[in-house]
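> tool_call: predict_assembly(chains=two)
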Amino acid sequence: MRRDKITENQADIDNMSAFAHVITSTQNPQIKFAVKLRDSAKARREHGQFFLEGYRLCMDALENGYTPELLFCTDKFDLPGAVRISESVAQKLGDTVTPQGIFGLFKANSPAPAQQLSGKIIALENLQDPANLGAIARTAEALGIDCLVVSGGCDVYHPKALRASMGALLRLPVTQIEDSPSWLEQCELPCYAAVPVGAAITPPECDFTAGAVIVIGNEGNGLSNEVIAACDARLTIPMRGRAESLNAAAAAAILMWELCK
Amino acid sequence: MRRDKITENQADIDNMSAFAHVITSTQNPQIKFAVKLRDSAKARREHGQFFLEGYRLCMDALENGYTPELLFCTDKFDLPGAVRISESVAQKLGDTVTPQGIFGLFKANSPAPAQQLSGKIIALENLQDPANLGAIARTAEALGIDCLVVSGGCDVYHPKALRASMGALLRLPVTQIEDSPSWLEQCELPCYAAVPVGAAITPPECDFTAGAVIVIGNEGNGLSNEVIAACDARLTIPMRGRAESLNAAAAAAILMWELCK
């Protein structure tokens, strides 16, 4: 919004009062807090908030019921209620060489009760790479997965995961659980542990029509023995050649395709 | 090899004569040439050689019939015929913070004649991201794809692609073609163009048992109209949700799974 428009009426002035002030210092406490949410999973957990960069992701969050705590934008944007920041502050907040100039702090969703889940579910146990998490979420949305369950070190609000998911992590139902083995034991759907080798059934042998959970493990170590034991069956993608295993995102794509088709 | 071993017999001395000299300058012409091959697709094409980093990849190349032009290693390795380099030169050549200290320049393979291909083939047209190319090659090997055909900007000898493939690009039969449409038209196998939307058949409707080619396009722009027209059919993965498309690696994983299962 251009400054000369602010004088048009009093309501606008009240709404836009934040615009009277432009944050120009990267040492501003609100900016420092935003950087903390951007960089630290611990801060995100402690405050129950997360950081978003870019118009598209912020709109995805707003359209999917996330509550904005604070929005920042440069004077390139007309964003009601946003705190205005200088280009140099945008540079500090942004992860790209030329940031768009729009950022938001949003309240994290309270997870849906895991016991009530139904349909086709993919569970990610202790996935390490946020880019993998994002890629899997994007594929999950495209194929029609009903819910993503994450546990262990998976941080769905990691900026890299959100960006790699192209917003899918904000649009998909996502549930974060603490104790996978006990959740899997209580789950009424058939639960399949994805394993790279060994005595296991293959996707064509499974009937997923009434819904199922497929659990995919950490990139390096796979699933823990506790998680495998808590599942009803082991599921594998038969492999040839000298590849030791499929990467997590490729295995997830194939298993989600079989689950949903 | 420890230096005191070199005196053991004359044959060893002759074999190891390179060890008498340790390259300590990053301005050495051999090192500058290695860096050029590492960083420039044009240099790789012009010289018909490529650069590898790490013990595992160099062994993969040697075991799969690639001819080494020059091997470099620090004194951590006993590599017959290798040129010895200092740690600081290894640091310059390496792409990681603590390089292993072993590098090789290899002759690129002459591509197999494209007309003689048979079996289950995946063709990558103008794929942009070397990490995607590497990931797709890794999945292709694991699932049992018979040959990878690449065209357009795809550089199978890009260091990032080679690393992401975990050596699969050195182990899989790979053919580089110049003119995809004319190759596809001459190809005797049924050719399927992977498209994100539109009038197209889905994988369960196809019979891949006698072999087929599936062509996957550029991450941003998909396949060109010329390539689609040169194929026998359009193939798509049905999508739900708001995702605009699957990413290239996920789509490739699903299509290769359907092709090979």
